[in-house]
Amino acid sequence: MKKILSILLVLGLVITSTAQKRKEKKDQFTVEQRTELTLKKMTLHLDLSKGQQNKIRPLIAESIAKKKNRKSREEMKKLTKDERFQLKMNELDAKIALKNRMKNILDNQQFEKYEKHLTRKHRRMSKRKMKIDKTKRA
User: Fold this and answer.
1) Pick from 109, 102, 93: which is nearest to 56 by CA?
2) Which residues constitute the domain of residue 67?
3) C-alpha–C-alpha distance, residues 53 and 90, integer Å
């Protein structure tokens, strides 16, 4: 009986320690490296011309730099409701501006593909977020 309890205790400790280590960061690329990788993926997916690539590169770099400087969840919790509201409004304004700039650079077919890809990406992220929230509540 004692052996079973001790085994269960050790197993529980192992599981909790690995769960805490689970959120290891991905490869930490520089902004330039991430920009080039994203641009290559977009070129493959949307069949971008050289001119389009040159126009999109600074937009991607700016977007990645903003994401890198985004506040963490803990920092967001410390903000007041008005500050959080203002941050969200700024994020949404930036997304709208990016969408309009991309619309000017891409042709109609490419823009449709781009929009379709973004909606799929957001759907996957929201599903992942819901799974994480469910595990935190349990």
Assistant:
1) 102
2) 30-137
3) 26
Per the structure, how many domains does the chain have?
Answer: 1
Looking at the domain assignment, is residue 129 inside a domain? yes
Q: How far is CA 95 from CA 5, 24, 30, 99, in A?
A: 53, 28, 22, 6
pLDDT of residue 97: 94
CA distance linking residue 24 with residue 130, whole number of Å: 19
**Alpha carbon separation from 19 to 9, 25, 29, 49, 63 (Å, rounded):** 15, 14, 25, 44, 31
pTM for this entry: 0.66
What local confidence, expressed as pLDDT, does residue 36 receive? 95
Q: What is the pLDDT of residue 11?
A: 58
CA distance 24 to 9: 25
Q: Give Cβ neighbours of residue 105 (< 8 Å, ≥ 6 apart).
A: 52, 55, 56
